[in-house]
Amino acid sequence: MTAPTKPTPQSATATTAATGAGTGTGTGTGTGTGETLHTPVIAWFDAHARDLPWRRPEAGPWGVMVSEFMLQQTPVNRVLPVYEQWLSRWPRPADLAKEPPGEAVRAWGRLGYPRRALRLHGAAVAITERHGGDVPAEHAQLLALPGIGEYTAAAVASFAYGRRHAVLDTNVRRVFARAVTGVRYPPNATTAAERKLARALLPDSERTASRWAAASMELGALVCTAKNETCDRCPIAARCAWRLAGKPEHEGPPRRGQTYAGTDRQVRGKLLAVLREAVTPVPQAALDRVWAEPVQRARALDGLVADGLVEPLPGGLYQLPLT
Length: 323
Hints:
Elements: H1 15-18, H2 33-48, H3 60-71, H4 76-89, H5 93-97, H6 101-108, H7 115-130, H8 139-143, H9 150-161, H10 170-181, H11 192-201, H12 206-222, H13 241-244, H14 264-277, E1 282-283, H15 284-288, H16 294-306, E2 311-313, E3 317-319
Antiparallel strand pairs: 1-3, 2-3
Helix pairs in contact: 2-12, 3-4, 3-9, 6-7, 10-12, 14-16
């Protein structure tokens, strides 16, 4: 078994980027927009990036992949303790692959969207069977893993292996929407125009491109936030199209925050909490006690079973999945 390639540390100094304008880090568009953004954003990242465990060299590609699964729709402060426990228990994909999928769901705890745990377990099994236990470096191989979409494949290839890919999460899309397009928010779903813009802004150098991906994401997470953005801390405020236009209000459909209380998501979470804490199969009566409304409770339980998160047993018993 070959040892996994060490990731390029995201906290390392971006020497190439610091001198990149006009030296092969351009966009290929002829506009120079990318060149004027790369250097200040990456320099800001070098000075202000958070010291997160998945950015350290010892995290390795597997640590990067685990973080990307956990960070989807979940804030960093909630991910950190679960991430540390996960990597301590399963330091390599093969360690997770040996366990039943229900153990991944149990260890996921209250991160939310627990199907991500099943998908990460499925990816670990595939990595073990197809790639000798090492997270692949090629984008196409990553994309072929179960539970891996375009974003995650690009993020792992970029952050773990320093490859040149456009990495478009919500934070990056918001930075690009404001700095380049001049609007407050990006569309609700990623568009072809956004992908084209991201590719146009991508530096030619692999190393600079991977730094740019991490830096633009961090800028959106810490400075160019969805609300209460701090433009006085932004390294590209002087050239931000949205700011220069006077910060026009959002003109699209109203942006509604996600609700949780009283939803099927809340009921599913309560049912899963009972099963995570149990060491033996749980009777129906124990699940009935966590939510009084029977129709919604039954619908939530049926959904968990359909998603493969709960396994029904004879005699009205339930458990986390073993297969």
